[in-house]
TrEMBL record:
Domain of life: Bacteria
Higher taxonomy: Bacteria, Pseudomonadati, Bacteroidota, Sphingobacteriia, Sphingobacteriales
InterPro entries to which the protein is assigned, alphabetical: AB_hydrolase_fold (IPR029058), BD-FAE-like_dom (IPR049492), GDXG_lipolytic_enzyme (IPR050300)
Transmembrane segments: 36-54, 61-81
Gene Ontology MF terms in the entry: hydrolase activity
Keywords: Hydrolase, Membrane, Transmembrane, Transmembrane helix
PANTHER family: AB HYDROLASE SUPERFAMILY PROTEIN C4A8.06C
Protein name per its UniProtKB record: Alpha/beta hydrolase
Domain BD-FAE-like residues, every copy: 141-335
Record flagged with keyword Manganese: no
Gene3D superfamilies assigned: alpha/beta hydrolase (3.40.50.1820)
Length: 379
């Protein structure tokens, strides 16, 4: 009976590979389930195999165990399916940028590598610099030097955290990965809500770009090749900065599950058991939508999409319970309307923060797409 109960519990957990999490701590569990599926497969397999030595509920336990194993494996299978077509899909999406030449943009390592699921990303060295001093505070960035010599492109990374938390040390493995492949990476801290409200973070991005431009020689930065990359709230900042500020040398922007339509987002709040999304937005924007509707429009990146918008990579999980994938659908439609080179990587099983493990199923795909995109817009 104990074995059957445990298997049933793991079966319920396995459902997070398919369905959305109903509450905050269940969402955290969903990140682990979809990022480290082989751990759950191993535990469930052991419990199922123990059925050889039991007499009661053997068939029921084995059936529940097998179903759970199949669900845990589903993100890996789906990753393999998406990985099969991602190269051709991205080549087609950015075909207008290649002229008539054969593009030398394909990453050497493809996604969907089963053996990488047993590993995690590296955390490499970085240097911390103060990039701006305001009257009441100063801000720093962590700089990951490219491991390829010469002046190299620079990726400015903007962390998530509901605009009110988080810092530049968030998910550093991708920063190291990109540095190893020839990109300088600057992960910034920015002023946080509710003490600071929009457009403060946009001003911080502008200050960071200015600092990197002024120190380009000593940091070996090619000032004609900047890219913004943001996660969650940081993606909203990255998109808005990329679409509204005329940064010299800005080549594109990467949007990891960011809110792109703040007006729509306020009208359809997230599950209150997950997050009070309206309170989060009010703290960042400075009031309710009824009080400051213009600021919600001004904070919506998709409102500023036009024919001159920089190339964009959108990455979003279909089971995201913090930032609805509807944001990305709307942004994708607007970019498509204006014929802006872009690609939307859809991960149907993935939840918010699926790239916690960059070598997990979703992390492999997003890392590949990011490197592909960077290679495309900087060469």
């Amino acid at each position: 009976m104990t074995r059957l109960i445990l298997l049933f519990i793991f079966f319920l957990i396995s459902l997070l590979s398919v369905f959305k999490a109903p509450a905050y701590y269940v969402w955290l569990l969903a990140v682990l389930v979809t990022d480290f599926p082989l751990i759950f497969v191993t535990i469930t397999s052991i419990l199922t195999f123990l059925g050889v030595w039991v007499n009661h509920y053997r068939v029921a336990g084995n059936l529940v165990g097998v179903l759970a194993i199949l669900l845990y494996l589903s993100p890996i299978v789906r990753t393999a399916i998406i990985a099969r077509d991602i190269k051709s899909n991205m080549l087609y999406a950015f075909r207008s940028m290649y002229a008539n030449s054969s593009p030398d943009v394909l990453p050497k390592e493809g996604p969907g590598n089963f053996f990488k699921l047993f590993t995690v990303g590296d955390k490499g060295p970085f240097k911390t610099f103060t990039y701006v001093k305001y009257q009441d505070t100063s801000l720093t960035l962590d700089f990951y030097q490219s491991e390829i010599s010469g002046k190299r492109p620079c990726v400015l990374v903007i962390h998530g955290g509901s605009w009110s938390s988080g810092d530049s040390r968030q998910l550093p493995e991708l920063n190291t990965y990109l540095a190893q492949r020839g990109y300088n990476v600057a992960a910034i801290n920015y002023r946080l809500a509710p003490e600071y409200q929009t457009p403060a973070p946009i001003e911080d991005v502008e200050a960071a770009i200015s600092y990197l431009q002024h120190h380009a020689d000593e940091l070996h930065i090619d000032t004609n090749k900047f890219v913004l990359l943001g996660r969650s709230a940081g993606a909203q900042i990255a998109l808005l900065a990329a679409y509204t500020q005329k940064f010299p040398g800005l080549r594109g922007v990467v949007d990891f599950y960011g809110p792109a339509d703040m007006v729509w987002g306020y009208s359809i709040p997230s599950n209150p058991l997950i997050m009070d999304s309206r309170k989060v937005m009010e703290d960042y924007i400075g009031g309710t939508y009824n009080a400051v509707p213009g600021k919600y429009v001004a904070c919506s990146p998709l409102e500023f999409v036009n024919q001159e918008t920089v190339p964009t990579l959108i990455i979003h999980g279909g089971n995201d319970v913090l930032v609805s994938p509807e944001h990305s659908r709307r942004l994708n439609a607007k970019l498509k309307h204006y014929d802006v080179p872009h690609y939307w990587l859809k991960l149907p099983w993935a939840t918010h923060g699926f790239d916690f493990n960059m070598n997990g199923p979703g992390g492999q795909l997003s890392t590949y797409a990011t490197l592909f995109f960077l290679n495309t817009i900087t060469k």
